[in-house]
Structures are given as structure tokens and as C-alpha cells.
Amino acid sequence: MKRKKKMLIWISIPLLLYATVLSIAYYHQEKLIFHPEALDTDFTFSFEDKHEEVDIKTKDNHSLHALLFEREENNQLVVYYHGNAGNLEHWGHIAPLYLNAGFNIIIYDYRGFGKSTGEIENQEALLSDAQLVYDFAKTQYEEPEITVIGYSLGSGIASWVAGKNEPRRLILKSPYFALSDLAASRLPFLPGRTLVKYKLPTHTYLEDVDFPIYMFHGDNDLVIPVEHSRKLHDKFPEINYIELKGQKHPAMNFNLSYQEFIAALNKPLG
């Protein structure tokens, strides 16, 4: 009897530990996925290009803080969904690439990032916020003048927005097939696909996109393996897919092939 009790104890301890890990992973996954850096409300940006700070109110009375970079001669707009870390102090530095190519650009911070208020608590609000930013863009530009770009975490969000609207084109940089798949590959000992609240199935969202899609991925990406883009391209062979040799996850905006693509992309409408 004592031996049976001991065995049960030895079996129950690892099960209890595993259950604890699952609980922590589930209830604290926002801290694992999102890495916001807040800014003081009176923080002053120091970008050389002309920019306007825009606050977009959410349905639950929070504020999404955005930067709108514009040059008078540009007649198209990029709506940019950024990655899972940093804030606009960092992301604003990508603006010159698009401005020089004839695109104005709006970039916003997710809840809790930069000057945006609130916290990311669920996928529904994350996507609803993304649509609000796109809706603001439509008050400034006609939809055929809008290009949606999503990088890393933002690729799934951008794909969802694209599927719900009719912009001119969608550009994905370092996308994932589904965020839940990425989580499962990172934590193989956990039931990632069911545990993750932020599933963001890019491959499902793209089924609703019926305009040009361009996709870039570095073959040396150690954060989101290039296999995710290859799998997306297998499912959607019509995607214009460019694999960047030697490119890692960061700094894709400074990749020469990507820069040449952006520079050649903005042709007169009509």
C-alpha cells in the first residue's frame, strides 16, 4: 500500500508541475507574445520627415497612437502593422523608405505600446483596433490608393484587415502560416495550437483576399522560419513570393532587394 502511495506521489508531482506550466503559459501568454515599450504622453519624436501624431479612439474608450508621415507630392498611403516589440520611436525610422518611393505612411502602436493606452487582452480587440486604423486611413485616402503592409506579428493582422477590405495590394514580410503553428513549433512540449488565444491564422485570412499579394521572407530567419512563407506559397501559388538570400528576421526594410521592390512599386494609378 505504501509503495502504491509513493508511486502515485511520484506520478502526480510531474503532472502537477506540467499543469502549472500550462496555466502560466495560458494566463500570461500576452507577456510571452507581446513586448511593449511605453512612452510618456509628452514624449517628442525627432524624425526629420514631416509627421502628425494621430489618436484613434477604440470602442472601449482607449486610444491608439499613430504617426502619419506625409509629403505633399505623394498620392498613395501605406498602412503599416508592425512587429511585437518596440514602439513608434523605433518603427518611425522606416518611414523614409516609403516616402522616397512616393508613399505616405501611417504606423500605429498596439495597446500598451508607445503612447497607446490599455493592454492587449484578446484577439478580437487586437483585430478590431487594426480595422479602426484602416478606417481612419480611408477618411484620408481612397481605397485604391492604400497599400497594407504587415511585418512579423503584424503580418497576420494585416492579412485579416486585407481580407475585410479592398486596398490596392497586400505586402507580407516574414509572415507566419498561423501564430498558433509558430507557438507549437517553439514549445513542442505544450499543446500550442489549442493553448494560444492569439491563433491569427494567416492562411485562412488570405482566402478572402482577391487583389495582389507580395510576400518576402529571409532564408536565414531564426524567429519565424522561412518554411512558414513557403507553406503559404504552396497554398496560394498566385502570391508573388520573393525569398531573400541571407536575410535574417530584423532590418528587412534595409534589404536592397526589398528596397528596390518598393522603389519600383509606386506607379501612376489608372
Q: What fraction strand?
A: 15-25%
- CATH domain class of the largest domain: Alpha Beta
Q: Strands across the major sheet, in which order?
A: 2-3-6-4-7-8-9-10
Largest sheet, described in full?
8 strands, mixed
| Shape estimate | globular
User: Into how many domains do the coordinates divide?
Assistant: 2
Number of helices, where a helix is a run of at least 4 consecutive DSSP H or I residues:
11
The CATH homologous superfamily of the largest domain is termed: Alpha/Beta hydrolase fold, catalytic domain
How many beta strands in the DSSP annotation?
Answer: 10
What name does CATH use for the topology of the largest domain? Rossmann fold
Structural overview:
The chain has eleven helices and ten strands. It folds into two domains: 1-33; 36-265, 3-Layer(aba) Sandwich (Rossmann fold). The protein has helices at residues 2-27, 29-33, 88-91, 95-100, 123-140, 153-164, 179-186, 192-195, 202-205, 227-235, 256-265, and strands spanning 35-36, 51-57, 63-69, 76-81, 85-86, 103-108, 146-151, 169-173, 213-218, 240-244. It has 270 residues and is of the alpha/beta class. The longest helix is centred in the first third of the chain and has 26 residues, at 2-27. Residues 15-22 have low confidence and may be disordered.
